[in-house]
Amino acid sequence: MSDDKKVVDFNEKRKQSIEQKRRTFERVVFQEFLGVYTVVDDQGSNFPIKLVDISKDGCQFQLPFSLKAKNQFKSGTEVTLKLYFTKGSYLPAVVTVRHASEYVDKDGDAWLRLGGEFDTSLPSFKAVSHFIDFIYQYAEFSCIDKGESKVFFL
Q1: Which of 153, 41, 58, 59 is nearest to 50 (CA)?
Q2: What are φ and ψ of residue 38, in 5° steps?
Q3: Average pLDDT over every residue of 27-34
Q4: What are the residues facing 80 on neighbouring strands?
Q5: Could you give the CA distance from residue 115 to residue 28 in angstroms, rounded to a whole number?
Q6: What is the pLDDT of residue 8?
Q7: pLDDT at 95 over 80
Q8: Which of 31, 58, 138, 154 is 20 to 30 Å from the Cα of 37, by its Cα?
Q9: Under 8 Å between Cβ of 118 and 79
Q10: How far is the C-alpha of 149 from the C-alpha of 151, rounded, in Å?
Q11: How many Å apart are CA 101 and CA 81, to the nearest integer?
Q12: Model pLDDT, residue 134
C-alpha cells in the first residue's frame, strides 16, 4: 500500500461521532432543561451558572466574570452546585476547583470558566453519576430523527 492512501479507522470515527452527539445533547440539556446554581458566599446566596461539560471525573462551568469571582474561585476551592431538575428540588454536588480562566464568548460576554473534580463520596453523587451515564448512553444510542416512520420497538 502506498503512503498517499489513508486508512480510515472506523472505531475512531465512531468515537468522534458519539462525542459530537454527546456535546450537542449536553448543550440542549444544560441550556433548556437543567438549571444549575452555586452557593458562592458565606451567607448562602445562590448564583446561576452555566454548565459547559460534565463527566464522571468532574465538570466545567462558567459564571459572569468579575474580579471578586476570580479571587474567590482559586484552585482547591470547594464549590457547592445545585442541579435543578424541577422547580422545587435539586441534586447537590460538590466540586473542587482545579483550574480557572477568563473566557470571552462569541457575543463578547466575559466569563470566568472553572473546571473541577466531583466529590464522589457524597451520597447524592450516585444520582449525579447516573445522570452522567444517561448523557453518555444517549449520545451512543440515540438516532437522528429524519422523519422516517419506521417503528423500532413497541
Answers
A1: 59
A2: -130, 150
A3: 64
A4: 39, 94
A5: 20
A6: 72
A7: yes
A8: 138
A9: no
A10: 6
A11: 19
A12: 86
DSSP3 helix / strand / coil % (the chain, rounded to 5): 30, 35, 35
Q: Bridge partners of 50?
A: 62
- In angstroms, the CA 100 to CA 76 distance is 11
Is pLDDT above 70 for 67? yes
* CA atoms within a 13 Å half-sphere pointing along the CA-CB vector of 3: 0
Strand partners, 38: 47, 81
Residues contacting 150, CB < 8 A, separation 6+: none
pLDDT for 20 equals: 77
The CA-atom distances, in angstroms, between 48 and each of 36, 37, 40, 82, 96 are 6, 4, 10, 9, 18
Asked if 60 and 52 touch (Cβ cutoff 8 Å), the reply is yes
Phi/psi-derived region of residue 44, left when phi > 0, alpha when psi is between -120 and 50, beta in every other case: left
Predicted TM-score (pTM) of this structure: 0.72
